[in-house]
């Protein structure tokens, strides 16, 4: 783990909150950094209590339903029309979703 | 930013060892997307192949495409991988509008196939084993169009337009382990690997693997370490490498660039770079986010995939003849030397020759047409061999016309030229251009007599038994008939007329 990533032990730092906020593209004020750090600490603390209960013979799980191999056949289903697809978009142009200038990054 | 200092390639390999890694994305040619029933066809009107699931609308639920999983397993098996008996999808979170969900559904630490290898043959026949680290399933992103700004690129764009038809199309990402000890051959190894992988996946029929259409895409990871030091360098990851030639050029360029940075005593920045087709160089993209920044976590909307041993073995049974098996068979059947087979493979002519043979032509004739005359034509036109506008069946017909004596080789080339020019089927070209050989003995005899009369000294030699002298008369007759005579028949007639 890198030094500025959230760690399982110890308190969440303001730097870690700032880093997460940047990843989520959230504008967080200086005051809020402290507030959120405290709140996130409480949440992580609550989750960490699960670890106190879980015994070694209980494997970690990521799903509440014990199912595997749920597949669908490779068969087409109707798609939306272009009008339907764009109906909830704040802006569209030429049949495409229009989004603000993307800064600094290119995939 | 100033232009990077590039070190001469030979100098680079004298002093540095390249470490090469390749990540190849293959778009599967399933009927529908990875997690929904939207079609996957290339080139539809924007946002007409989308639904609530692939648009990431609230309340939608993804369900895995069974055929896509089978394709992934078959690719893994063909690459000699172990198939994971249990694995989950994960969310790769990132903030970029090419995925409407703000995450990509991918596999992270539980890929479906691991630890394989692919043996790659270089142009001179050297075989390099490339170890495969993993092959995993994920979904493709949408396509962005950047509007405003001079270059159509993101920099300077005023806004972007998104088409999500491609978002959710099944992708398999195949990642090699670091390929060590390639030295000066690193660019060639990279190209040969991508070529071999393309041929393998094409043989499986799971993707059309067209680099020019983006259904196969390559990222090149490269670092240098000082020769013999064993110290791993910082790597760059070059994206947008969209042709086999570009794979080779991207490796070569990055090697020269890295050496320039290291020679100056600077550190190579770990970053994504973009290959520039026009200048064969790379341009800095973004500083790479660490995997922690993607905040991967198991996808809660999908259940694990647990391929049973029976299912895997059933899929193994569906593997077709793989490219190296096919090559061995063809070499045997056509009686080719190693070098002859290699020439065919290197000229990208194997499939075309095989199809021409399937259409009825003898393999020797088919081979010679594709490797020599048609390869030259492709070169002149600046296209790959299989983009030439002539089909194996058309070529097989031309060869048939030669075999039956209706065309000689010179005329046959003119017929092929006509087909390439879009003048129609071989028989139509023959008719339109009036290219059939003069098979009317009467007309030929007249031409032979005329030529003999014009060169009485030669005629005398032939009559005296010097049959070899007939060549001069054959030449004269061919000239007189504008090449449309069967040279063999002309020779027979000369000897007949001279009573030799
Ligand atoms: Zn969909």
Sum up the structure in keywords.
heterodimer; A: 107 residues; mainly alpha; two-stranded antiparallel ribbon; 3 helices; 8% strand; disordered N terminus; B: 500 residues; alpha+beta; Arc Repressor Mutant, subunit A; 3-stranded antiparallel sheet; 39% helix; elongated; binds zinc ion
Largest interface: A-B, 42 and 65 residues
Oligomer: heterodimer
Instruction: Give a list of the ligands.
Output: zinc ion
CATH class of the domain at 8-52 in chain A: Mainly Alpha
Structural class of chain A: mainly alpha
Strand order of the largest sheet of chain B: 3-6-7-10-1-11-12-13-14
* Dominant shape of chain B: elongated
Largest sheet of chain A: 2 strands, antiparallel
The total domain count of chain B is 3
Biggest beta sheet attributes of chain B? 9 strands, mixed
**Strand order in space, largest sheet of chain A:** 2-3
Average pLDDT across residues of chain A?
Answer: 84
User: Which stretches of chain B are poorly predicted, pLDDT < 50 over at least 5 residues?
Assistant: none
Structural class of chain B: alpha+beta
What can you see in these coordinates?
The complex is a heterodimer of chains A (107) and B (500). Chain A has 107 residues and is mainly alpha-helical. Chain A has 3 helices and 3 strands, in the order ααβαββ. Chain A has a domain at 8-52: Glu-tRNAGln amidotransferase C subunit, N-terminal domain (Histone, subunit A, Orthogonal Bundle). A two-stranded antiparallel ribbon of chain A has the order 2-3. The longest helix of chain A has 24 residues, at 30-53. Residues 1-8 of chain A have low confidence and may be disordered. Chain B is an alpha+beta fold. Chain B has 3 domains: 9-314, no CATH class; 323-433, no CATH class; 441-497, Arc Repressor Mutant, subunit A. In chain B, the strands form 3 sheets. A 9-stranded mixed beta sheet of chain B has the order 3-6-7-10-1-11-12-13-14. Chain B has a 3-stranded antiparallel beta sheet with strand order 5-4-15, with no helix packed on it. In chain B, a hairpin with a 5-residue loop joins strand 6 (113-121) and strand 7. In chain B, helix 3 packs antiparallel against helix 4 (244-263). Strand 1 of chain A pairs parallel with strand 2 of chain B, so a sheet runs across the interface. The complex binds zinc ion.
């Amino acid at each position: 783990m890198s030094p500025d990533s959230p760690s399982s032990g110890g308190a969440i730092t303001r730097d870690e909150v700032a880093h997460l906020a940047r990843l989520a593209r959230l504008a967080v004020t200086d005051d809020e950094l402290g507030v959120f750090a405290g709140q996130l600490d409480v949440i992580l603390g609550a989750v960490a209590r699960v670890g106190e209960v879980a015994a070694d013979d209980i494997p970690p799980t990521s799903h509440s339903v014990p199912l595997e191999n749920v597949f669908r056949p490779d068969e087409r289903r109707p798609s939306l029309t272009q009008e339907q697809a764009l109906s909830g978009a704040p802006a569209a142009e030429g049949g495409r979703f229009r989004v603000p200038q993307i800064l600094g990054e290119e995939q | 930013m100033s232009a990077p200092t590039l070190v001469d390639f030979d100098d680079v390999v004298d002093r540095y060892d390249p470490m090469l890694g390749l990540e190849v994305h293959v778009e599967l040619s399933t009927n529908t997307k990875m997690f929904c029933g939207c079609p996957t066809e290339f080139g539809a009107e924007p946002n007409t192949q989308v639904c609530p699931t692939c648009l990431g609308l609230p309340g939608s639920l993804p369900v895995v495409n069974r055929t896509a999983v089978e394709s992934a397993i078959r690719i893994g098996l063909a690459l000699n991988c172990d198939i994971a008996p249990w694995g989950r999808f994960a969310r790769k979170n990132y903030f970029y509008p090419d995925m409407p969900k703000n995450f990509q559904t991918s596999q992270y630490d539980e890929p479906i196939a691991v630890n394989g290898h692919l043996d790659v043959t270089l142009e001179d026949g050297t075989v390099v084993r490339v170890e495969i680290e993993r092959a995993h399933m994920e979904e493709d992103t949408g396509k962005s169009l950047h509007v405003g700004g001079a270059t159509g690129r993101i920099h300077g764009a005023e806004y972007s337009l998104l088409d999500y038809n491609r978002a959710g199309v099944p992708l398999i990402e195949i990642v090699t382990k670091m390929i060590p000890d390639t030295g000066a051959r690193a660019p060639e190894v990279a190209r040969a690997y991508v070529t071999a992988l393309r041929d393998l996946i094409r043989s499986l029929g799971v993707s059309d693997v067209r680099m020019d259409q983006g259904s196969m895409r390559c990222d090149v990871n490269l670092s240098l370490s000082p020769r013999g030091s064993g110290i791993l360098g910082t790597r760059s990851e070059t994206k947008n490498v969209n042709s086999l030639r570009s794979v080779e050029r991207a490796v070569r360029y990055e090697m020269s660039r890295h050496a320039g940075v290291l020679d100056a005593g600077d550190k190579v920045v770990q970053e994504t770079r973009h290959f520039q087709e026009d200048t064969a160089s790379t341009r800095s993209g973004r500083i790479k986010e660490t995997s922690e920044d993607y905040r991967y976590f198991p996808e809660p909307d999908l259940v694990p995939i647990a391929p049973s041993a029976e299912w895997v073995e059933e899929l193994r049974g569906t593997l077709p003849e793989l490219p190296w098996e096919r090559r061995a068979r063809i070499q045997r059947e056509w009686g080719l030397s190693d070098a002859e087979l290699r020439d065919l493979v290197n000229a990208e002519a194997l499939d075309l020759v095989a199809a021409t043979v399937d259409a009825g032509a003898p393999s020797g004739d088919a081979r010679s047409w594709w490797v020599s005359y048609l390869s030259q034509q492709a070169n002149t036109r600046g296209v790959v061999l299989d983009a030439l506008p002539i089909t194996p069946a058309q070529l097989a017909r031309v060869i048939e016309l030669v075999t039956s004596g209706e065309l000689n080789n010179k005329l046959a080339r003119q017929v092929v030229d006509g087909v390439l020019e879009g003048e129609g089927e071989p028989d139509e070209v023959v008719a339109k251009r009036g290219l059939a050989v003069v098979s009317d003995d009467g007309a030929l005899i007249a031409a032979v007599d005329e030529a003999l009369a014009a060169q009485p000294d030669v005629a005398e030699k032939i009559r005296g038994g010097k049959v070899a002298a007939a060549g001069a008369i054959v030449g004269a007759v061919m000239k007189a008939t504008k090449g449309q005579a069967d040279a063999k028949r002309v020779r027979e007639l000369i000897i007949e007329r001279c009573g030799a």
